[in-house]
Amino acid sequence: MRETVLKWGSQSTTWLYLLLAYPVIDYVLRQILPIPVISSLWDEGLLIVLMLFTFGAFLQSNRTMPGIKHWLGAFFVLGVAITVTDMANWGATVEGFRSVYQYILAFFMGFYLLKSMEDLDKFMKGLVLVGFVAALYGVLQVIVGVKTPESWVQEGEAVTTRAFSFVTSPNVLGSYMALVTPIAAGLFMTAKDRKQKWIWAIVALTTVLALLLTGSRGAWFALAFAVFVCFYIWNKRVAGYLVIAGIIGIVALFFVPDSVPLVGKVKDRIFTLFTPEYFESSSEGGRIGRWGKAYDNMRIEPLFGVGLGHHGGAVAARHFGTIYSDSYFFKSLAEYGLIGIILLIGTVITMFKYGAGLIRNIQGSPHFFAILGLLGGLIAVATHNLVENIFEVPFMALYFWLFGGFLCALFVDQTQNKRW
């Protein structure tokens, strides 16, 4: 037994699987079996262990990081510079720095710890299965009628029950499902036998249902955009047909009676966006108003922003009493200024460019659709950050950067080393 435990503990994959189970472990330790100190620090301990493995892999690896290292390096240097120059609010600034860069370290874990395409296939399956558990829990909440906290229900809306599972909110669950649904669909497409296809079909349909039940419009639109991108990469003609089908679907949805189960609620959530009441409330105290405040803060210090942890997020709320920006990118615009937001967006786009390059290189491969689904899920999460602070949720930020590192690692292996 002791030898088995030591063997598992000495493998980085064991700790990566624990990272993939982050939302479940965190929920159990914080809500069901709270253990002093461990419940609040277990994730930091896990990241430290994984960074030690990463450092060892870096010393032994022949894998060379591509041009994204320049974007990452510049982004880290900017963060350090902003931190050390804001001594008046040192506590908030350091916490703001940690809340961003601690999770970006997962990119390096993904880049150096991944050994093969087969390992990535296993990690994707682990990610999707944990997401499936979250989806089932969320669906059951709606079935039994768990009341959604009022802060997540817009005034005047017919929707009063939104799935939120064991994660922070319906919007976070929506982003989580937008990440795992394309991957589950990709695994379905790559499955070799009927049994596996049934399994991944059930998983994909369950995560889609959970996504719909979250009522998260931002996650719906983000996934729709990601699906379009995936189809465009795969087959441009089919992508065009998809756009036409989407337009027809939206028009048809307008005529669906509100009394139709689920579809009526989806209609209510979508078309509420186009009412004068929504625009007025959003401009005064909602998203539009919050984005305007973030822009105004950027204008104070246009190049370098007002400082990390100073606006629009959890750290700013604790230290300065500011409200959330409801957009990670607008929050970053206010805190980093124009230089920082350009570096952040440039890093994300470069990561996606490598992912798309990898997909082009493996067209015809048995792994094609699974990797395409992974890229789609990451695009959905990044897009959702336009209207939500998703990267402030630890497990979502870790998943995004970890799997982005996986994609970049395989891109390097495919283009530089010709390993497969």
Automatic annotation (TrEMBL):
The alphabetical list of record keywords is: Ligase, Membrane, Transmembrane, Transmembrane helix
Look up and give the membrane topology term. Multi-pass membrane protein
Do the record's keywords include Transmembrane helix? yes
Location in or out of the cell: Membrane
Q: Which residues cross the membrane?
A: 12-29, 41-59, 71-90, 96-114, 126-146, 173-191, 198-213, 219-234, 239-256, 336-356, 368-387, 393-412
User: Mind naming one GO cellular-component term on file for this protein?
Assistant: membrane
Cross-referenced Pfam families, in alphabetical order? Answer: Wzy_C
Report the superkingdom from the record.
Bacteria
Q: Where is the O-antigen ligase-related domain?
A: 203-345
Protein name (Swiss-Prot/TrEMBL) = Ligase
GO molecular function per UniProt:
ligase activity
Q: Which InterPro entries would you find in this protein's record?
A: O-antigen_ligase-rel_domated, WaaL-like
Q: Give yes or no: UniProt keyword Endoplasmic reticulum.
A: no
